[in-house]
Amino acid sequence: MQRRSVWLDGVIIAVISVLACIMLMPYVWMVLSSLKSNMEIVAGSGGFFPQHPSLDGYRTVLQDTPFMRWLLNSAVTSVVITAVTLFTSALSGYIFAKHQFRGKKLLFILILATMMIPFQVIMIPTYLITAKLGLINHLFAIILPNLVSSYGVFLAKQFIEEIPQDLLDAARIDGAGEFKLMLRIIAPLILPMLSALGIFTFMNSWNNYLWPLIVLNDTSKMTVPLALVYFNGTHMVNYNVVMSAAVLITTPVIIVFLIFQKQFIKGLTMTGMK
Fold first, then answer.
1. Strand ranges inside the chain, DSSP E
2. Could you list the pLDDT tens digit for every one of the 274 residues in the chain?
3. CA-atom Rg of the chain in angstroms
4. What count of Cα atoms within 13 Å lies in the side-chain half-sphere of residue 111?
5. Which Pfam families does the protein's record reference (predicted)?
6. What is the value of pTM for the model shown?
7. Mapping DSSP to helix (H, G, I), strand (E, B) and coil, where does residue 263 land?
8. Cβ distance 151 to 115 under 8 Å?
């Protein structure tokens, strides 16, 4: 039985390793292609690795375009959306989990129902409202529609319901108000969930392409996903430049994940659901 267990573990590790290599292959190919010349990529010569590694693609991106401005736009929108979404999700989840009020179940069902509506369905009404507010070509056009997440509210509610009510009552007896209760008691207990939700929200905001494409046409207000379109010429594409930009775009997301990976994994394993 022990030999069979060791053999089975070896097979599982081998399968997982193969799947990990398959998943990482596009990113590795993208990094290696960014070090090639455009002619080498178009001709397909040299195989998988660059024959003459060069940083010309990165120089073009950083020196000949306002890429740092686009990077700042994406950073501002993603950080603001993530921070406000975590706040609204935690606060709403706490209210739905620990407070009783008329129409609570109906309101929560309506919030969950919005999770079933594709963004494409509400895209035109959202655009018309954004235009009425005069936010076209403004970063607030990206931020405002994404400040509340129905999935975040649902997830926070499930986690906060697991917190013993006696703990909250004891804190109230000691003089803790609702804000201190959220900050000192609930927030630390749901930190894994907040980390997981924060990473998902940050990644979705950072990689959002469709909505910024609709509401932004000013080059100075572009976000980094739109930058990839900027590098596509009418008759020719500089693939090494596009690959270099893609590497620079994906690097911040990888860094954020590496920083919060422990909390992220813990948040995924702790579902908080009864």
1. none
2. 556 677 777 888 889 999 988 888 888 888 888 888 877 877 766 677 888 888 888 988 888 888 899 999 999 999 999 999 999 999 999 999 888 888 889 999 998 888 888 888 888 999 999 999 999 999 999 999 888 889 899 989 988 888 888 888 888 888 888 888 888 888 888 888 888 888 889 989 998 988 998 998 888 888 988 887 777 654 567 788 888 888 998 888 888 888 877 777 776 666 544 4
3. 23
4. 19
5. BPD_transp_1 (PF00528)
6. 0.83
7. helix
8. yes
